[in-house]
Every structure is written in C-alpha cells, then in structure tokens.
Amino acid sequence: MSIVIEKLNYVYMAGGPYETHALRDVNLTIEDGEFVGLIGHTGSGKSTLVQHLNGLLMPTSGRILVDGMDLADKDTDRRAVRQRVGLVFQYPENQLFEETVEKDIAFGPKNLGLGEEEIARRVRDAMRRVALDYDTLHERSVFELSGGQMRRVAIAGVLAMEPQVLVLDEPCAGLDPRGREEILSLIRGLHSECGTTIVMVSHSMDDVASLAERVIVMNKGGVFMDGAPREVFSRGEELRAIGLDVPQAVQLAQKLRDRGFDVPQGVYRIEEIKAVIEGIAGKGEKHA
Amino acid sequence: MLNDITLGQYFPGNSPIHRMDPRMKLILTIVYIVGVFMVSNLPGYAIALAFLYLVVRVSGISFKYLVKGIKPLRFILIFTFVLNLFFVEGETVLLSLGFVRITKEALENAVFFALRLVFLVMGTSVLTLTTSPIRLTDGLERLMKPLQRFHFPAHELAMMMTIALRFIPTLLEETDKIKKAQMARGADFESGNLIARAKAMIPLLVPLFVSAFRRANDLAMAMEARCYRGGDHRTRLRELKYTRLDLYGLLATAAFIAVIIAEGKLLG
Amino acid sequence: MASNDVNRIVASHLSYAYPEADRNAVEDVSVRVKKGEFLAILGHNGSGKSTLAKLFNALYVPSAGTVWVCGLDTKDDALVFDIRQHAGMVFQNPDNQIVATVVEEDVAFGLENNGVEPAQIRLRIDEALAAVNMSDFALKAPHLLSGGQKQRVAIAGVLAMKPDVIILDESTAMLDPSGRQEVMNTVHRLNREEGISVVIITHYMGEAATADYVIVMDDGRVAMSGTPREVFTQVAKVRALGLDVPPMTDLADMLRADGIGIRADVLTVDEMVEEVCRLSSRS
Asked: Which residue among C96, C122, C125 sits closest to B215, beta carbon to beta carbon?
C-alpha cells in the first residue's frame, strides 16, 4: 500500500488577515515498507503534512491517494483511511480518557465496529508490541502509569487499529533517555518485524540517522530534500542554512576532511566514523 | 459563527474612547443602560441611537461591525419579541384569532423590549471593543475594591478573569488537537443522534479536563514561586488615572440622560 | 554572614517525602551552589531531580535536613517570599506558567506581588525584557509566541525580581532544538554577564556539558558529581543511571574498547578532531 501526494497545497485561514500558506506544491510517494524520517524546523509544514496523510486536514488543492482512495473526495470512507494510516500525535498520552488501559486501547478497534473477541485479541497484541504486560496492566487506570508507560499505551491505542502505515509526530518528545530508547526500539521492531511502513517526524538528527532509510527535509512548506540519509546528511551546509543540524558523526567527518584526512563521502553513522578513525589510527601505529 | 460575536472582543485602537479610564467607561456604560431603560417612546430611542452613533463614530469602530454583532442574537430577539407579543396583557385589541390576542400594549412592549436588548448589546460591545481585557479587569477590580471591606472577593474575581482570558486560546488549541487525535482512532463527532453525539464527546472532554486540571496545578505552583499571595499589598504596573477625556465622557453621558428625562417628561 | 557571599544555596543532609508517600523522593542530599556557578542536575524521570529543585526555593519544605538560600532557612515561614525573590524558578511547560494576557504584564507579575512601585516596575520589566531579547514583544499576547520565546518571557519574569539564582526545572524539555538553544544561550549570558548563579534540571547531556559542575541523581540520592568531564567519561556508570553520554564521548569509549589510544574525556566534535590529529601525527 502506498501513499501518493500530488501537488498538495494547504492554506490556513484562507482570506483572513492570518492567512498562512502551510504547504506548497508537495509531491511525494511513500512506498510500502519504507521507514521515512521527516525533519524540518518548527513551522516548516511537517505537522500539517502528516495530518493530511489520514484525512484529518483536507487539501486546499492537490491530491492524496492512500491505497488508491482519494482523500480529497468527499465520498471516501474516512474511517477506512484512518484504519490504514495510524497517526500518533505529539504527547499522545494527552488523549487517554478511559478508566482502564484495556478500554483505552480498545477505543480504536471499537470505532471500527469489530467484534468483542477480535477487539480483545488486538488489545493484547498491541500491548505486547509496545512491551506492556497485559496481565499486570490491563485493568490499571491510565492515569496511574508513568509517563513512558502512558505514551506506550497511547501508541498501542493506534496500533490496535492495525494500520499498515504508522505516522509518529515526535514520538520521543519530553522523554528521558531511557524512555526515548524504549520508544525508538519499539518503532524499530514494528518496522523490521511487522513490516509496518513508518513515517517519523523528529527533531533529533541522531535518531533519524540511526533509524530511517529515507529522509525528507521540509522547509517553508515545501520538500527541501528527499533521499537516503547518506545523501541528505552529506549536504550539511544546506541543512545548516535552513537552521537544521546534522548528526555529530557527519560533523566529525566533515571536520576531519577539512584537516586533510581521507574520509569517504556520505559517512553518517557513528560506527562508520569509528571504522574511519581506526583506519587512521591503525596507519599511525604501523608507521610508529 | 463564533467570529460574528462582537461582544467581548477587543478592537485595538487609539481613539479618545479607547484612551478613557476603564472605570469611567464601566460606570458610563451602566449609566447609559439605565438611560436606555428609562426610554418609553420611539423619539426617545431615536435620541439613544443618535448618542450611540456619536460614541461609535468617536471610537473609530465601524457602525456596520457593531450591527453585525447583533446577528447572532436574532433568535433571542425573536423569541423575546414573540413572548412579549402574545403574553402581555393589554386593553386595546389589535388582532384576535381564536385564543390568540394581540394588544397594542403588547406590541409596544415587544418592540421596546427588543430595542432595549439591541441597545444594551451594542452599548456594552462599544465598551469591550474599545477596552483591552486586561484594562477591563483592572477597572472592574478597582471599582469593586470598596466592596472588599464586606469580604467581597474583588481581586480574586479579577484574577480569575485574567487567567480565564489567558487560557482560552490555549485550551481551544488543545481541544482541536485532542479532537484530531481521537478522530485518528476512528472517533466520529459529527454523525448520529443527539445522545450518540453527546456520548462521542466523552473522549474529548475527559482529556480536556485532565489537562485543564494539570495546567491549573502547574500554574498555581508557578504563581506561588513568583511570590503570589493574594491581593493585599499588591501594586500594579498600570495605575489607573482619570483624565480630561473622562470628564468629557461623563459630561456627554450626563447630557444624554438629561435629554432622555426631558423628552420623557415632555412626551411621556 | 561572610560565607553567604560565596554560597547562594546550601543544602545539608536534605530529605523530602511527598505527603502520604512511603519513601523519600529526596534522600540525604548535600549540595551547594556558589555565587556565579552554573550547576546541572541530571537524572532520569523519577530520580528526584525536580523535587530537589523545588526544595531550593521553598516550594517544598524539607522533611529532614536544611536548605539555606542566600543564608535564609527555607523552613522559616516568614522568609518564604524573600527566598523566592532570591531564587527564581522557570518551569517545564511554557504554557502553564504565564499568568497575564500581555507579555509585559506577565513580567510584572512577581514585582506586583511584592508591592514594588509602578515606576520601578516599569523600569525593571523593560530591563528584564531587554536582557532576554524580547523587548519587541512587550505588548504581544503570550499564546502567539513560540515555545522558546515563552520560556524567555518566563525568564524575564524571574529576572525582573533581581534574583541571585535562577533555577530551570526542565525548562527546555518541551522545546524544539532552536528553542532549547535560545533558552540555553540566554541563561549562559545571564550567568556570565550578570553573575547570576544558574541551576538547570535536565536530561539533555548537551546542556549539562556546558555547566561548571554536574550532579547525577538516582533514587533520590546523589549518585555522581563532578565537572562534566569527570562525570561523562564514566560511560558505563552514566548509562547504568539511565542517561546518555554525549555521542563523541561514546565514540571515544568505543575506540578505547578497540584498543585505540584515545583520551577518554572527549566531549565535543572539535576535541575528537584534535585527538584524531594527535593519533595520526604519531606516524
């Protein structure tokens, strides 16, 4: 299942004094099974873009096709779209409302009109996938949980819809390093084990570098760059010019190149730069 | 729809009306309303209209904008008009259809009541359109201050108003976000009968309340950290001062009341 | 009182338990914040770091032990408002600490509470807004500002009180990278130019790396302390406490594990570049 975006434009408060052109002529295709990192500073249009992917926002002009369904068409079944494309908002724990963990996760499947047995299966399944123990937690109140657990319940609530595409807006915002690592590893697992297509909005270049297979950079409502992390991060100057950082491994590679070391283009992971330094040091030791 | 309501909105500007002391504006608005309620014939309403028009012109707000503000009130207006028309007892029967009887007195009453409502809303709209919320709360607080002697919580009320005004945009934004998050989980807020729709609000209202309580808790701690200890001994950045403008406003309103009374005596 | 000129905050054997909690959230902590010092308190969520911060300005009163803020004991009820004027606090959520509907009115809030004369308030809020580069926004509505701008308004509100210490309780946690940078630049400048002591509570290693001194909290206790270099280079221990190490320190650690003779206390990219140059020049 793919998502095709054609000439998408979106204008907030059209005609008013606060009119903002949030998206300009966006053309993208997200293929089945991809892991896309979506980056860009605040106001670049990335949050507006992801809200189009499941029909929460309607294009001002242009088209979005999800599994062949045209989202701009009024007759398209929105629920079917939202089942296929799951969207996890920033600070998703703020949407929890039910008395128990189980009931909250069941909210989505219930809205899909599924049978009780199927709902129960999905709740267990979703909890397992976010590493929450069903037996000890399903009857607990969501408001008794820790911050990291609440976030995982919220993600499970979207996973229980069994979407083929999972869109996450800043899934790690506000978490401490341990919580962040937990969330990132569960996202990694969803992608590699379940084959879910992932679109992850993030401010952390290091997170994107360690997970994504494709990086889309947004700027001023348009797609600024789109490619493999290796290509995108090798254009460090351009990224810095629009106020974005590059992963530290890329910064180090560039600075070593500036000092005359032979560092291959496109190095962006810590392991890669480590191998390069070991090469340099190894040569040093041989000559010594 | 919400954008149509002019009552309670502020229209930034620098007209003499804008620059008047909020306390004076509050008092004069009340005086004006009393004046309007004293009117009991059509020429009197013409005078009130002339006065209102004058004030609006001086304030620099377009009269049309103000009239537009009446639109959302049309149902209340029609309702009260009809209510007055049918249920006020009178002598002179104008129309009689079965048990429905419309009298001259009832018609007069209905028209005047509707007019009063219109003048009341337009008058208070002028107040809120020309006074920023913070100046308005300041004015209210200081007008009510003497009541504190009788344990009336003037400062607390004003502080509550300020905080409410501050958090309305934040909570509106949050409502939108939670609504979308639940829609992403297949929630439907738009279809179904009344009961189904009311039930559909739970996933929206519960998180909203939880968040509002958390915000209240955070805010209380932040206020405490900034040495908040109630209204006693508190000073204000902006001191309110009466100026010549307030005197003019007072005189103009006094003249309006005098004319209304004279007119009532002559024609009443 | 001579010692008070040097120490802004002194905490001695400090413990605190929340009402109805069966264990202490802060347990036997002793720390001091010197004049002009920049202290970072690190720790994973629930380690007690935020509780500790709230003990520093009498929002919480110690269950055992004592906190002195500029020589004032926080247990003394009569001193509470003095203490909060000396030690100002900026909180986590930018939306939940701004009280007024106009920026300058909010900056004035603390001064109004303390009964400062209107003319003096005017002067101080203008200064404070200038110090955080927000003068142009004095008459704006707070909800129209970015997260970083809102936090700078909150800092101005504290600054207007002329504090000796500013405590930032995870004030950057909800901001985007540019907002975080704005806030960190602002507090570093105030620390450098005005000599105001700063205590930041954070779990961002990058922010802690710029501090003079670092404390790592775990389970309510001080688990590690020292300069950022001393703390971060103990990679395994920092990890075990649920924290990250800066990527370059991590890299140095991995290289050392492979037998490369690199210094362990590398924190930044530039330091790593120097180390690699040193390694290769031995050839």
From this structure: C96
Q: Which tokens is C249 given?
A: 């320190």
Give CA–CA dist A215/A197, Å, rounded.
14
Please give the pLDDT value at position B216.
95
Measure C85 CA to nearest chain B CA, in Å. 7
CA A39-A44-A49 angle, to 5 degrees, is 75
Between residues 148 and 167 of chain A, which touch chain C (CB distance below 8 Å)?
A: 148
Closest CA to C177 of A278, B75, A243: A243
Are B26 and B254 in contact, with CB atoms under 8 Å apart?
Answer: no
Please say whether the dihedral angle defined by the alpha carbons of residues A71, A77, A78 and A82, taken in this order, is positive or negative. negative
Does A251 map to a domain?
yes
Distance from the Cα of A211 to chain B's closest Cα (Å) equals 24
**CATH architecture for residues C2-228:** 3-Layer(aba) Sandwich (3.40)
Angle CA(A33)–CA(A35)–CA(A40) in degrees, nearest 5? 145
Give the pLDDT mean for B27-52: 92
All residues of chain B having their beta carbon less than 8 Å from the beta carbon of residue A96 are 207
Query: The domain containing residue A273 runs over which residues?
Result: 247-288
Cβ atoms of residues B139 and B131 within 8 Å? yes
Strands A35-39 and A85-88: unpaired
Task: Report the sign of the C-alpha dihedral through residues C23, C27, C33, C39, in that order.
Answer: negative
State CA C193 to chain mean position distance: 17
Q: pLDDT for A80-129, tens place per residue?
A: 999 999 999 999 999 999 999 999 999 999 999 999 999 999 999 999 99
Does residue A6 contact residue A186 with C-beta atoms inside 8 Å? no
Residue A15 is assigned to a structural domain of this protein: no
On whether the CB atoms of residues C51 and C131 are closer than 8 A, the answer is no
CA neighbor of C171 nearest in space, from C48, C53, C81: C53
Q: Report if residue A287 sits inside a domain.
A: yes
Return the domain boundaries, chain B.
2-131+240-267, 153-225
Q: Residue C31, SS3?
A: strand
Q: Is B203 left (phi over 0), alpha (psi -120 to 50) or beta?
A: alpha
Cβ neighbors of B257 (< 8 A, separation 6 or more) are B31, B34, B35
Of A56, A112, A143, the CB nearest to B183: A56
Whole-angstrom distance between the N-terminal and C-terminal Cα of chain A? 57
**Closest by alpha carbon to A108, among B175, B192, B199, B181?**
B181
The amino acid that residue A122 corresponds to is R
Note if the pTM is more than 0.90: no
Tokens of B133: 């919320």
DSSP C95: G
- Whether the CB-CB separation of B25 and B249 falls below 8 Å is answered with yes
Rounded to 10 deg, the angle between the C269-281 and A248-258 helix axes is 40
Total number of domains in chain A? 1
Grade residue B250 by pLDDT with cuts at 50, 70 and 90.
Answer: very high
Q: What span, in angstroms and rounded, lies between the C-alpha atoms of C21 and C13?
A: 19
Question: CA nearest C13: which of C65, C49, C48?
Answer: C65
Domain membership flag for residue A263: yes
8 Å CB contact of C251 and A274: yes
> Which residues are CB-contacts of B265 (< 8 A; sequence separation ≥ 6)?
none
> Is residue A107 less than 8 Å (CB to CB) from chain B?
yes
- β strands within chain A, DSSP E: 3-12, 20-30, 35-39, 61-66, 69-70, 85-88, 165-169, 197-201, 214-219, 222-227
Counting beta carbons within 10 angstroms of the beta carbon of residue B78, is it exposed (0 to 12), middle (13 to 18) or buried (19 or more)? Answer: exposed
pLDDT in tens, A49-79: 999 999 999 999 999 999 889 988 888 888 8
